[in-house]
Amino acid sequence: MKLSVLLLDEPFGALDEATREELQCILLTLYAENTAAVKNGQEAPHTVVIVTHGIN
Questions:
Q1: Strand partners, 51
Q2: Rounded to whole angstroms, how far apart are CA atoms 12 and 5?
Q3: What is the average pLDDT value for the chain, to the nearest integer?
Q4: DSSP H helical segments within the chain, as ranges?
Q5: How far is it, in rounded angstroms, from Cα 50 to Cα 6?
Q6: Are 17 and 7 in contact (CB under 8 A)?
Q7: In the chain, fewer beta carbons within 10 Å around the N or the C end?
Q8: Residue 1's pLDDT is what?
Q9: Quick check: 6 and 47 in contact, CB under 8 A?
């Protein structure tokens, strides 16, 4: 199933360190795929909305 929008509300708040790092890697992969698509003149394939109070 392909999702059109990924909504994350405080996704890192209650995670252990290993799971947090895995989620960060997943999000960085999505970002890289979006960047590559835009660079090639295509529409970004992912929309991710993250709600957080901790920007770090």
A1: 9
A2: 18
A3: 90
A4: 17-39
A5: 8
A6: no
A7: N
A8: 61
A9: yes
